[in-house]
Design brief:
Strand order of the largest sheet: 3-2-1-4
Number of helices: 10
CATH topology of the largest domain: Beta Polymerase, domain 2
Oligomer: single chain
Largest sheet: 4 strands, mixed
Number of strands: 4
CATH superfamily of the largest domain: Beta Polymerase, domain 2
Radius of gyration: 19 Å
């Protein structure tokens, strides 16, 4: 089995991100985000991180997203910040064509360190991120081993999480805005299939002690442990790369896949 995420001699995941690895084509965009954030937040600004493939120099130019995490010292006025995030992201995308989207996640340090909503974000920052400005609060995060406890930490409510996504395709609820913007069914197809693949990888991690987020490796590693899931995960991988807008297709897929996956999950990752 393969992984992009090494562990240290004690079995803890280590951060593979560094500012030295960021591709030069993307650096001007990141520098402007830092400048705009400092101007907007002033003394309230604590830290700015870039996470994901950009932090490791493995981004695909023109198709990867910029995933930023902007941490503030005090509470965040959600409505006020959302408007700034939307307008800033739109402006940057119009002026820089090196990425496909800009995510400016902005939150208080207290929520970043303690809120269950941001548990996965804490893992992402601890394992694949680069500090662009400010205090390195990642040093305050717990250390993570790739095991059953990490699966439970990252996906404590996976059944309800996927069910809420399923509701979008059933037509019972309107798709929620993401980063203040209404998104297409194709966007939610990608989001859902990424969730399917990465939660399946977390399930396999209970047996393999391998952590991964790359979709291809999630597929590869999980199907070694659970070959019966291969047809579903291959379909999820296809739709994560080439999404569909036929809600009936996605709904049928989820209705067939979820009972099989959740039965395995409840056995391996009991609450």
């Amino acid at each position: 089995m393969r992984t992009n995420y090494p562990v240290d001699q004690n079995g803890y995941l280590v951060n593979t991100g560094s500012v030295d690895l960021i591709q030069p084509e993307i650096s001007p965009l990141l520098n402007e985000i830092v400048s705009l954030s400092k101007r907007k937040h002033g003394d309230a600004l604590l830290s700015i991180y870039v996470r994901g493939s950009i932090s490791t120099g493995k981004a695909y130019l023109h198709s990867s997203d910029v995933d930023m995490v902007i941490v503030l010292k005090g509470e965040v006025d959600k409505k006020h910040i959302e408007r700034w995030v939307i307008l800033t992201a739109q402006d940057l995308l119009e002026r820089y064509d090196v990425v496909s989207d800009v995510d400016l996640t902005t939150l208080s340090v207290d929520r970043f360190l303690h809120d269950q909503e941001y548990a996965r974000l804490r893992v992402y920052i601890a394992t694949r991120s680069a500090l662009l400005w400010g205090q390195d609060i990642a040093r305050s995060l717990p250390r993570f081993r790739p095991d059953r406890n990490l699966a439970r930490y990252m996906y404590p409510n996976i059944e309800s999480e996927i069910e809420s996504l399923r509701e979008i395709f059933s037509g019972r609820v309107d798709p929620p805005p993401y980063l203040g913007r209404k998104r297409s069914i194709r966007f939610w197809c990608i989001w859902t299939m990424r969730t399917v693949l990465r939660s399946a990888q977390a399930l396999a991690m209970c047996s393999t002690n391998i952590y991964e987020t790359d979709l291809n490796l999630c597929l590869e590693n999980t199907t070694v442990v659970y070959p019966s899931l291969r047809p579903y995960l291959e379909q999820a991988y296809e739709w994560a790369l080439s999404p569909v807008d036929d809600t009936r297709l996605v709904l049928c897929f989820l209705d067939d896949y979820l009972p099989k996956f959740l039965q395995l999950w409840q056995y391996e990752v009991p609450s």
